[in-house]
Amino acid sequence: EETQVSFSNNDSGTEPINIGFEFPFYGDIYSNFIINANGWIGFGENNSEWYNGNLPSIDYPRPAIFGFWDDLNPVNDNCNATCSGNVYYHSNASRLVVSFDNIAHWSSEGFENSFYDFQIVIYPSGDIDININSIEGNYSATVGMQNASGTIASQVDVYNGNYFNNNMSIELKNVETIS
Fold it and tell me: What mean pLDDT do residues 109-126 have?
């Protein structure tokens, strides 16, 4: 059963949520995670940074998995006229699925009527799937992951391009042995 997440504002994160299994990530083991409204999940403190960029960076969320990190505007407690879309998660012993369901981009020049539908799926093996279901409009998302110190990262090499498309899945393999 999916649980809907609520956010206090469009750059906020949840309180820690139990993953449901131990998740190995860059040599550490995590049992809790947070979901940030801007399209990422993390295993440490929330980071309200909405201006996404290239990884790795100590200034950006860490340790974190970036499903489609951008200046997103899901339904939240301080919605403006253009907030849209909800975030859900479901966990069992075999996987955690975080779904960003048709989330609006913050209304700014060039991003009007831009909506993203994607999932971050993590497994007890440490493997990660990022499923891009649909992209409507423009985007400038960061997709990838980085370690707790912000010094090692894997990023899908696109920043302002046409790389991502509908019904696309990106698989990131277990990084447990990397320190």
Answer: 96
